[in-house]
Amino acid sequence: MKVAVLDIKGKETGRKADLSDAVFAIEPNDHAVYLDVKQYLAHQRQGTHKAKERAEIAGSTRKIKKQKGTGTARAGSIKSPIFRGGGRIFGPRPKDYGQKLNKNVKRLARKSALSIKSKEQAILVVEDFNFDVPKTKDFKGVLKSLGLENKKSLFVLGDSNNSVYLSSRNLKGSEVVTSSEISTYKILNASSIVLLESALEGLESNLTK
């Protein structure tokens, strides 16, 4: 599949990029996409929730009233869950929400997501660019030229580029990743995918192993 290569002004350079059909034109597997997105979101959970139970509450161990003769229920500890300030019954404990997923399923999910975006004509190929110094204004200029100013966009670089990354960091709707950091969730969450020329080889290599 041939796609025109654009410059950062949004104009065609006269060159064409060849997008592999094995990555950008497969029949999407919805279940693989679901599993990969589910795993990604599960890994975002810290799992550090914790409530103190009866044995962890700081308080006196004295029997708070005599066993008989009070006319009320027996009570042996101020730390009992039935009293205010007592421990919590079956409270949340730290937990790892991570899920395992086969590498081949993850590759299939990412290829499916890219194929969906390709079918929607939401993939742009842009020649490599750089900024002399990190500047949000310069990155906003690129977004405006590509018609992505008010859209969610995902820029995929071949290698890490600190200037481009820092220039985009303050913009809520844009994200910059390398070809090895791309995920199914990030692909689907963006309205448009911007692939830099240097990212194509690494992306296709990672997804066709």
Commentary on this structure:
- By secondary structure, the protein is an alpha/beta fold.
- The chain folds into 2 domains: 2-45 and 100-207, Ribosomal protein L4/L1 (Ribosomal Protein L4, Chain: A, 3-Layer(aba) Sandwich), CATH 3.40.1370; 47-96, no CATH class.
- Helices cover 33% and strands 15% of the residues.
- It has 7 helices and 6 strands; from the N terminus they run ββαααβαβαβαβα.
- The chain has a 6-stranded mixed β-sheet.
- β1 (2-6) and β2 (12-18) form a beta hairpin.
- α2 crosses α3 (103-119) and α4 packs across α5.
- The protein is elongated and about 95 Å long.
- It starts with a strand and ends with a helix.
- One of its GO terms (molecular function) is rRNA binding.
- InterPro entries: Ribosomal_uL4, Ribosomal_uL4-like, Ribosomal_uL4_dom_sf.
Features:
single chain, about 210 residues, alpha/beta, Ribosomal Protein L4, Chain: A, six-stranded mixed sheet, 7 helices, about 15% strand, elongated
Topology:
Layout: E1 2-6, E2 12-18, H1 21-24, H2 30-43, H3 103-119, E3 123-126, H4 136-145, E4 153-157, H5 162-168, E5 174-178, H6 184-189, E6 192-196, H7 197-207
Parallel strand pairs: 1-3, 3-6, 4-5, 4-6
Antiparallel strand pairs: 1-2
Helix pairs in contact: 2-3, 4-5
Question: What is the name of the CATH class of the largest domain?
Answer: Alpha Beta
Q: What Rg, in angstroms, do the CA atoms define?
A: 27 Å
Low-confidence stretches: none
CATH architecture of the largest domain: 3-Layer(aba) Sandwich
Distance between the termini: 20 Å
Question: What's the helical proportion of residues?
Answer: 25-40%
Number of domains: 2
